[in-house]
Amino acid sequence: MDNFNAYQPNGEVAADRWVTVRHLFDAGYVETPADRWERAKALFDTKDYAKAATLLAEVAGEVPFQADLHLLLARAYYHSAQLGKAEAALRVVVDRCPVEHYAHLLLGRTLERQGRAGEAAPWLRMAAAFGGELAEV
Asked: What is the largest CA-CA distance in the chain?
């Protein structure tokens, strides 16, 4: 609860505060990984990608087998320009769920953004194939 008084630029209460407000008066409550995941999703939805990534990385350490968590973590890293971390998280997703279309696409885009178009091409072709499209890469 270190950010209880956080507000958005428009004066609204920060989105992650609404997720945790129900526990304000329960002194014995311990936040679970699921609670932190929900809070991170709220941060992601408000485009606070860096904070979402920090929180999601904590949860990923506790719940390492959740491919969708790693995909959201990779997206948060990508949108906050932490491209090396995004690539690492995406490789985890692709290893665990090799038919995850979006992971292939985002891995290709991440590699492109790092100036590695040659490495990106096979990932983008794979994403296009999984998506039922003809690749133009």
From this structure: 57
Enter the tokens of residue 122: 């096979």
Residues 34-65 have pLDDT tens digits of 889 999 999 999 999 999 999 999 999 998 88
SS (H, E, C) the chain: CCCCCCECCCCCECHHHHHHHHHCCCCCCCCCHHHHHHHHHHHHHCCCHHHHHHHHHHHHHHCCCCHHHHHHHHHHHHHCCCHHHHHHHHHHHHHHCCCCHHHHHHHHHHHHHCCCHHHHHHHHHHHHHHCCCCCCC
pLDDT tens-place string over residues 19-31: 556 566 666 777 8
- Closest C-alpha to 118, from 135, 104, 137, 133: 137
pTM of the model: 0.77
Q: Which residues pair with 98 in a beta bridge?
A: none
Contact 118, 94 (CB under 8 A): no
Q: Which two tokens stand for residue 14?
A: 């920060």
